[in-house]
Amino acid sequence: MKFLLVFDFDHTIIDENSDTWIVKCAPEKKLPNELRNSYRPGHWTEYMGRVFVYLGDNGIKEDEMERTMTAIPFTAGMVDLLGFIGKNKELFDCIIVSDSNTVFIDWILKAADFRKVFDEVFTNPAAFSSAGYLTVQNFHAHRCAKCPKNLCKRKVVQEFLDKQLERGVSYTQIVYIGDGGNDLCPVMFLKKDDVAMPRQGYTLEKKISQLAQDLSPVACSVLVWSSAIDIMSYLKLLIK
């Protein structure tokens, strides 16, 4: 009996968006208008690439970026929840599927000593160039019309489950914990025994509610959370 916990990262594990938080490193803590206005819907990763060039051009170094990122607060109750999961790893496999990047997530998890809670992290690959600039790439290519072009979370979860099955691992239940619009695609893939846990007041909760109003509700159960303590309470019931 094993459960799979799938976490989003921004506004779910941490209480901010890591990509917008990094702007605190910029001169006067803001970006020039023409850079801000260069974002095109569905092309966030390319936009962040330009943001990282701007930071590099302004002499912002890796250590300053790391200091800024590791100051992001965790969501209420999240430290307790991750501690609880860490103590019960024989029951829970735990992955992150995020539109952030490998550098930011590694910094934040390592600083808080939570890296070992997660079996795998699926996010946009990032690295520092020889010139000291942070570069980021799309996670993968996909054909899903609903998702941003760099990441379809449903595809990631499906491929992870397929790989696990090949290893002889299947799950009693999948619990998907997220907040954003790009979490809807994987939630719609969940089965009736699975659980979606959207964060209260965020886009994912609103989109799931809208589907129910349109009489095409998601197949899985839905449990809304406002503090990660709500998630922990559910997991404790699950393993009783």
TrEMBL record:
InterPro entries per the UniProt record, alphabetical: HAD-like_sf, HAD_hydro_PyrdxlP_Pase-like, HAD_sf, Pase_PHOSPHO-typ
SUPFAM superfamilies named among the record's database cross-references: HAD-like (SSF56784)
MF annotations from Gene Ontology: metal ion binding; phosphatase activity
Active site: 8, 10
Needed cofactors: Mg(2+)
Binding site for substrate: 19, 99
Superkingdom of source: Eukaryota
Binding residues annotated for Mg(2+), in chain numbering: 8, 10, 179
Keywords, alphabetical: Hydrolase, Magnesium, Metal-binding
Family of the protein in this entry: Belongs to the HAD-like hydrolase superfamily. PHOSPHO family.
UniProt name for this protein: PHOP2 phosphatase
